[in-house]
């Protein structure tokens, strides 16, 4: 076999020595060469296990129609029918000149074959232009070209007889059943024994049957053990052979003729598998064998055709010897492995058409292994009709430089022949084209292949190519879209050494019932009482076996994307029948189904089943049983299989992709617990308070101007005016705060504290119910204030023995959590929803009935939250913040030591109409889980005093809103009202976490909004980290991080899609300078490290997309990050502290520099000025998971203010412009088009200038605005680094880029 070399071969090419010899004795030569290569090759991530699929074979309806009966035809009739069908595939009419040329070729070929010594070079030349059917010419030529027949005709008969004899001996030695082997052994033994009386002669005595000869022997050396292993391979071969060219009765009809052909091919493939344990059988080898067996068995020479099986086996071995390295895992990284071949193919394309190579591999990211892997390994047998395959093989086998050389040329020519379609296609269109190659003139294709230059043998694999392709194998293909999956059942599960029912060793009767093996029955009766007692104890404390609980998960590579509920007492045949709607933005080679036994200390792996991603890319349903493998990729005990169904929808097939809300008929986010509600009213709040006349006139459509709302004033009024109910849920609720503090906006009783106000309303007969997160660290034996300083114990004590019902509710784990998980959830995670629900007066005032009004968002009713867009850090310490000084970032900070205080920027909203009832229902669900019984009003009580859910805006009112509620929550926090069946749960967008139900619709809402986006996205959030499955593995084990939500990856993929389409798109992200806390602390530094990795992943995507399009641009023109800060000159009459901070501390340095960050606590996203999400959820795994922090959010738009033919100019636009005015201190016309280069460059320029002022050593004026560039630099490859001379945040010793945590687990900081 010719291997890759650095230079073109010179002189006349020669047939390799291996093609001159006969069939290797028991294939020893091939096996030995494999063992030698395995020692030389490195490890690889590309692993082709025995039985693993190279290609999915599916029959469409028209193909299935061909699987009819034989109508009584003879074998010869079927054979002739197939040959005629193949002849018709040529299609074009035959000219006279073509007939003459064919006759000349036949004469020339027959002359060459009649020579005593065959001139192989001349034979190669003739065969390269195509061989003629009939007369056995193709069969003889192929045998010569493959080296099966020697060049000397005199040796043919002897070689054929010798090889056929060897093949017969192989079958006799390797394919006999153990019972036949034993029988022959017995006969041989009996023939050597003296004759005995008939009375004593008969069945072997027990002591004469060896352990290895017993069918139930578990000994590895047992012939029966090996027989059962071979039977599994044989079953796979049988399944594949039936699907081999289903349009041809020769292979797949249900006739004796077809069955005879399949049986012969079965023996060939099984022999190959047994003789080559390093390779065994790989699905697809049947397709490679098919042309050989067909050509040889249809030879017109009856003697030759009768020996087709032996000849096919010998030639099959020779043919695979030229590409067998592709099937050997240990050789993947070697110069003869599949990675090398794919690299040579890529280099060949690049050398012949760099434009097409760049479009496919750089722009579309369609790497050769997505399509050429199948082309190369199956020798193009799946890409063309059978007649074309035979013609192509004529050229492959006759190529003087070897089959692989010509194969790569043909593959490259296949791309060149559809170049125009490929250049105009996107990722999905091109992938479908290459995986379903169109009909083509084969002679033209082969001509293009012959003319390619340079020869592929001149290519060698560079180290870069090896690394690149190896990483490609690990993360094979981008799945960006939605995956609908269903897990039905596992057919049977066995426990090693026992049986299909674990230690009970159950066996199924014919009627389906179960019985206990009699062999173990007596023992089990003797210990039955003890066993039941033991299992009861184990079940109670969660240790040991107890009740068997089984569950399954779905992974895209190492990213968990789905999990079933726990099934109890179904250890043999677990049936889930669960459906999943999975959003995907993952690089993956397989969809992996993992089956586990659960226990309270964790889980035990049963096995995994793999469905290649390539099977689902075409969008068709894949519904099949998949073999379950152990960690070494061997079938688990009993050959168990799992029944799954998959269908993938690429993101661009979604009608709403890139089209925004699009229409007033937009139905909202699908598969969610709460539907979209119409006829609502929404009030948007920036910060807790906005002073009069702060916001300049911002024009809206219809000649209106934006009017800001005031959050805490509206909440004060809502609580104060409530008549029947006040529901509050919060991460923290502090009774000592006042809600109204603007001296220029006086209100009656404005100085009353929140605690006094709630007590007053409760005393008036209003039902006041409060759910406050119970911080477990605030228990008495630690410290009452708790690590989070939420005042939970103080609040509970304040309302003790009052009419206010305040419940401290811990973030309880669900009942199915392991002990470790339970500890994690209850101590690390929180109830993070911020809710106020009240009854309010009807707008007209004409009815005594009331309506429901709800508030949700990011602002807790606690200390440190009241602020205005001025965000003063020193000037309000003797007024607004005199009794509300908040500064948790410095040790020992207090009002007595002076500023800077920590300013607080946040976003909230008020909801009226049907969606307000959804917020109330969420509170009721939580109260029913963790609150006091009997305190919630009954429905009939509400009917008498509250109007039912109904619109508060007329449909024709241009200020109406459509609103949808979303949550992150699970059964540990709310259980009442969740669907109780898997089907209904899936329709409501709920997923299972072992034995509890999870609502994670907030993440779904973000993903849907990002995918719909057309022009720009503006985000403000307290945290920004996630999509860890795409992070670079520098210094971490990526799969251990678990920040799996998709939002950052969806954002970068949206930008990339716009770059590839030549369209503008900009993403703006505002985050805090660092997470609240001591900036040098391990937790803060760990979060900053996660944030850096997230940013780097996104910028890498953007930079690569720009490079692929040849665009020279600053990546910050597409994706840009900011933080907020303030710096104030000292003024007369300012608060003078009585004490001072510790010298040379962060506190003292910040006080001297008179600067500090503005803490961004908002959780908001605006898309195209037409859609907005506001809530309590951060962009991290804690908030998006559903099983960690409980969250609530809303997504809303105004149907009459959509970005259709022109930009949206409704309330959302006004709100964004008001926020930008707050942050930048000015408005500019370019801000009307945030996606434009002018806008983003203006905003970046201003933020850069403000950062220079903020970080400078001197101060000569107030900071004009608050928006600062996030202090990092972006490298040419997307790498995140520090700005020059800016390693630490100003006034601190805290690294801007963060640092990996040493002690804290990732689950706490992600």
From TrEMBL:
Known EC number: 3.1.4.4
Keyword Lipid metabolism attributed: yes
Names of required cofactors: Ca(2+)
GO CC list: plasma membrane
UniProt keywords, alphabetically: Calcium, Hydrolase, Lipid degradation, Lipid metabolism, Metal-binding, Repeat
Disordered: annotated segments: 1-22
Pfam families, per the entry: C2, PLD_C, PLDc, RabGAP-TBC
Segments forming domain Rab-GAP TBC: 132-400
Highest taxon of the lineage: Eukaryota
Limits of the PLD phosphodiesterase domain: 827-865, 1156-1183
Any one GO molecular-function label of the UniProt entry: phospholipase D activity
Keyword Ribosomal protein carried by entry: no
Catalyzed reactions: a 1,2-diacyl-sn-glycero-3-phosphocholine + H2O = a 1,2-diacyl-sn-glycero-3-phosphate + choline + H(+)
Enzyme class: hydrolase
Domain C2: 513-626
Entry similarity comment: Belongs to the phospholipase D family. C2-PLD subfamily.
Name of protein: Phospholipase D alpha 1
Species assigned in the record: Protea cynaroides
């Amino acid at each position: 076999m010719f291997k890759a070399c650095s230079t073109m071969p010179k002189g006349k090419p020669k047939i390799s020595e291996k093609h001159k010899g006969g069939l290797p004795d028991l294939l020893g030569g091939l096996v030995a060469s494999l063992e030698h290569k395995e020692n030389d090759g490195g490890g690889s991530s590309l692993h082709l296990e025995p039985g693993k699929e190279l290609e999915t074979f599916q029959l469409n309806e028209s193909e299935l129609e061909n699987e009819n009966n034989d109508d009584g035809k003879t074998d010869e009739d079927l054979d002739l029918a197939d040959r005629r069908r193949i002849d018709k595939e040529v299609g074009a009419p035959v000219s006279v000149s073509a007939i003459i040329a064919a006759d000349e070729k036949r004469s020339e070929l027959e002359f060459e074959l009649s020579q005593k010594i065959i001139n192989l070079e001349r034979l190669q030349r003739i065969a390269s232009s195509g061989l003629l059917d009939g007369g056995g010419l193709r069969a003889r030529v192929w045998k010569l070209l493959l080296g099966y027949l020697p060049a000397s005709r005199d040796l043919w008969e002897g070689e054929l007889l010798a090889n056929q004899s060897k093949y017969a001996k192989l079958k006799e030695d390797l394919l006999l059943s153990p019972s036949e082997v034993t029988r022959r052994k017995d006969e041989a033994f009996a023939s050597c024994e003296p004759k005995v009386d008939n009375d004593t002669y008969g069945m072997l005595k027990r002591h004469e049957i060896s352990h290895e000869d017993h069918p139930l022997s578990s000994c590895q050396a047992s012939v029966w053990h090996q027989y059962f292993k071979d039977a599994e391979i044989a079953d796979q071969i049988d399944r594949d052979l039936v699907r081999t060219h289903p349009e041809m009765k020769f292979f797949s009809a249900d006739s004796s003729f077809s069955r005879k052909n399949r049986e012969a091919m079965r023996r060939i493939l099984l022999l190959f598998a047994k003789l080559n344990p390093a390779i065994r059988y790989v699905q697809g080898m049947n397709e490679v064998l098919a042309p050989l067996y067909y050509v040889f068995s249809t030879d017109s020479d009856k003697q030759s055709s009768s020996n087709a099986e032996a000849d096919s086996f010998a030639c099959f071995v020779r043919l695979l010897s030229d590409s067998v390295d592709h099937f050997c895992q240990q050789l993947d990284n070697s110069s003869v492995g599949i990675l090398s071949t794919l690299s040579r193919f890529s280099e060949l394309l690049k050398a012949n058409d760099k434009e097409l190579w760049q479009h496919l591999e750089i722009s579309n990211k369609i790497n050769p292994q997505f399509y050429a892997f199948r082309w190369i390994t199956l020798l193009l047998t799946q890409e063309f009709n059978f007649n074309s395959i035979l013609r192509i093989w004529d050229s492959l086998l006759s190529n003087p430089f070897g089959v692989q050389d010509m194969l790569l040329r043909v593959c490259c020519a296949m791309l060149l022949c559809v170049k125009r379609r490929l250049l105009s296609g996107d990722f999905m269109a091109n992938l479908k084209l290459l995986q379903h190659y169109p009909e083509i003139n084969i002679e033209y294709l082969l001509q293009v292949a012959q003319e390619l230059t340079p020869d592929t043998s001149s290519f060698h694999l560079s180290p870069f190519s090896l690394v690149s392709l190896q990483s490609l194998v690990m993360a094979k293909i981008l799945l960006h879209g939605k995956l609908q999956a269903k897990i039905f059942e596992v057919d049977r599960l066995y426990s090693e050494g026992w049986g299909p029912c674990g230690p009970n060793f159950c066996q199924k009767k014919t009627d389906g019932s179960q019985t206990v093996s009699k062999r173990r029955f007596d023992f089990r009766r003797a210990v039955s009482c003890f066993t039941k007692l033991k299992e009861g104890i184990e079940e109670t404390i969660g240790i040991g076996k107890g009740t068997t609980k089984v569950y399954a998960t779905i992974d895209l590579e190492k990213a968990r994307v789905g999990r079933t509920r726990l099934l109890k007492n179904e250890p043999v045949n677990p049936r889930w029948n669960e459906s999943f709607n999975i959003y995907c933005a993952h690089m993956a080679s397989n969809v992996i189904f993992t089956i586990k036994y659960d226990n309270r200390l964790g889980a035990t792996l049963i096995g995994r089943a793999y469905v290649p991603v390539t099977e689902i890319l075409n969008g068709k349903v894949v519904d099949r049983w998949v073999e379950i493998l152990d960690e070494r990729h061997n079938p688990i005990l009993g050959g168990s299989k799992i029944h799954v169904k998959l269908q993938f929808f690429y993101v661009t097939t979604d009608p709403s992709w890139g089209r925004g809300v699009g229409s007033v008929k937009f139905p909202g986010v699908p598969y969610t617990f709460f539907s979209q509600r119409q006829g609502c009213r929404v009030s948007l709040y920036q910060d807790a308070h906005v002073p009069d006349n702060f916001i300049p006139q911002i024009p809206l459509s219809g000649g209106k101007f934006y009017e800001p709302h005031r959050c805490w004033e509206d909440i004060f009024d809502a609580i104060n005016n409530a008549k029947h109910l006040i529901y509050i849920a919060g991460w923290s609720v502090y009774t000592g705060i006042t809600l109204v503090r603007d001296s220029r906006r006086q209100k009656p009783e404005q100085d009353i504290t929140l605690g006094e106000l709630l007590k007053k309303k409760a005393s008036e007969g209003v039902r006041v119910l409060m759910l406050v997160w119970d911080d477990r660290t605030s228990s008495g034996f630690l410290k009452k204030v708790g690590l989070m300083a939420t005042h939970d114990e103080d609040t509970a004590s304040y309302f003790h023995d009052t009419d206010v019902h305040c419940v401290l509710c811990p973030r309880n784990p669900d009942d199915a959590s392991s002990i470790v998980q339970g500890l994690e959830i209850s101590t690390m995670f929180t109830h993070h929803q911020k809710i106020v629900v009240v009854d309010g007066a009807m707008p007209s005032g004409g009815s005594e009935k009331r309506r429901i009004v709800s508030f949700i968002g990011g602002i807790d009713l606690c200390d440190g939250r009241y602020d205005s867009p001025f965000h003063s850090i020193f000037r309000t310490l003797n007024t607004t913040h005199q009794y509300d000084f908040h500064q948790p970032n410095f040790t020992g900070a207090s009002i007595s030591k002076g500023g800077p205080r920590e300013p607080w920027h946040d976003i909230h909203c008020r909801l009226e109409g049907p969606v307000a009832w959804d917020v109330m229902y969420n509170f009721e669900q939580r109260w029913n889980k963790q609150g006091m019984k009997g305190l919630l009003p009954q429905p009939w009580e509400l009917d008498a005093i509250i109007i039912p859910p109904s619109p508060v805006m007329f449909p024709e009112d241009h200020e109406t809103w459509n609103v949808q509620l979303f949550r992150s929550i699970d059964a540990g926090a709310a259980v009442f009202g969740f669907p109780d069946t898997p089907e209904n749960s899936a329709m409501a967008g709920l997923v299972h976490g072992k034995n509890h139900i999870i609502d994670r619709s907030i993440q779904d809402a973000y993903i849907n909004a990002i995918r719909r986006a057309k022009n720009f996205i503006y985000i403000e959030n307290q945290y920004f980290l996630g999509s860890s499955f795409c992070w670079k593995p520098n210094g971490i084990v990526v799969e251990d991080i678990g920040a799996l939500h998709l939002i950052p990856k969806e954002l970068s993929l949206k930008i990339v899609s716009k770059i590839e389409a030549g369209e503008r798109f900009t993403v703006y992200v505002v985050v805090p300078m660092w997470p609240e806390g001591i900036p040098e602390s391990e937790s803060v530094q760990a979060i900053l490290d996660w944030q850096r990795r997230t940013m780097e992943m996104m910028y890498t995507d953007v930079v690569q997309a720009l490079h692929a399009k040849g665009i020279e641009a600053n990546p910050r023109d597409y994706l840009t990050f900011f933080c907020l800060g303030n710096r104030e000159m000292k003024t007369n009459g300012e608060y003078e502290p009585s004490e001072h901070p510790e010298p040379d501390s962060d506190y003292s340095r910040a006080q001297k520099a008179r600067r500090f960050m503005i803490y961004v606590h908002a959780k908001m996203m605006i898309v195209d000025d037409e859609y907005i999400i506001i809530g309590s959820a951060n962009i991290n795994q804690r908030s998006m998971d559903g099983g960690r922090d409980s969250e609530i959010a809303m997504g809303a738009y105004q149907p009459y203010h959509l970005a259709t033919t022109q930009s949206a100019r409704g309330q959302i636009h006004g709100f964004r412009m008001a926020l930008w005015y707050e942050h930048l201190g000015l408005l500019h016309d370019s801000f009307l088009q945030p996606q434009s280069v002018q806008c983003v460059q203006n905003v970046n320029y201003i933020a850069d200038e403000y950062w220079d002022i903020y970080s400078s050593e001197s101060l000569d004026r107030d900071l004009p605005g608050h928006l600062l560039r996030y202090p990092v630099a972006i490298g040419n490859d997307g790498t995140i680094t520090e700005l020059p001379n800016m390693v630490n945040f100003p006034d601190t010793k805290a690294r801007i880029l963060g640092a990996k945590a040493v002690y804290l687990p990732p689950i706490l900081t992600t």
